[in-house]
Design the sequence.
């Protein structure tokens, strides 16, 4: 409630300015129309895992999803992890640029609204282990979830999904070692008997995190899992 109140005051007192070039933002968005048009969009994603597919191709599924359907129902990822989206995410993640959180949350919410997404019972951010929280201080996925909940009028919680084991960073690991690194490191508290949950993350690379989290949710009775991410790598 306090965060929403502060956001409302800021929007009324200070016109939105583009976080990339400094020009006047579009409506209440911290992005001008020129910079928004230059964002690298994921124009032809796989309809399950959002992997970018060749433009003009006939298939709606990537080869991997066509062969083995993933545990999650769908990943939504409107952008490619290229400049300037990668810089916006990194500035939020490592430098606590809250304006980027508001901007990216609004852009993802707008994408979901245009896609006609199934409404989940709750939005849950990808958790950090307590050691990661001490090191980073800032919980960027929770900031994105809070912004999405505000834009979409949905409930969100950072207390349902826990990372119970510290893992090494995923970047630099191949698919096999990513899966092994995350094995049984998430625990979901489903005392509310939830059946439909949306998980919020910043970037999807191989889908290993999404798969392991979905397995944890499925084991606790959650039947339908969406992954909402800002960007997808190739």
Sequence:
């Amino acid at each position: 409630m306090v965060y929403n109140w502060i956001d409302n005051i800021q929007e009324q007192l200070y016109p939105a300015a583009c976080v990339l070039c400094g020009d006047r933002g579009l409506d209440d968005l911290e992005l001008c129309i020129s910079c928004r048009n230059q964002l690298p969009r994921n124009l032809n994603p796989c309809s399950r895992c959002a992997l970018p597919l060749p433009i003009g191709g006939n298939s709606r599924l990537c080869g991997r999803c066509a062969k083995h359907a993933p545990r999650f129902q769908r990943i939504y990822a409107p952008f490619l992890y290229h400049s300037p989206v990668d810089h916006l995410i990194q500035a939020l993640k490592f430098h606590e640029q809250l304006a980027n959180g508001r901007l990216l949350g609004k852009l993802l919410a707008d994408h979901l609204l245009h896609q006609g997404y199934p409404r989940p019972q709750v939005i849950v951010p990808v958790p950090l282990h307590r050691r990661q929280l001490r090191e980073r201080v800032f919980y960027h996925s929770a900031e994105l979830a809070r912004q999405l909940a505000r834009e979409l009028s949905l409930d969100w919680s950072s207390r349902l999904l826990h990372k119970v084991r510290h893992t090494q960073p995923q970047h630099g690991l191949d698919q096999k070692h990513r899966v092994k690194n995350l094995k049984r490191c998430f625990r979901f508290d489903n005392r509310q008997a939830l059946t439909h949950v949306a998980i919020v993350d910043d970037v999807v690379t191989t889908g290993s995190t999404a798969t392991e989290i979905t397995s944890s949710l499925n084991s606790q009775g959650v039947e339908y899992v969406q992954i909402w991410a800002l960007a997808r790598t190739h």
Remarks:
- The chain has a mean pLDDT of 89.
- Residues 4 and 150 are 8 Å apart (CA to CA).
- The longest strand covers residues 196-204.
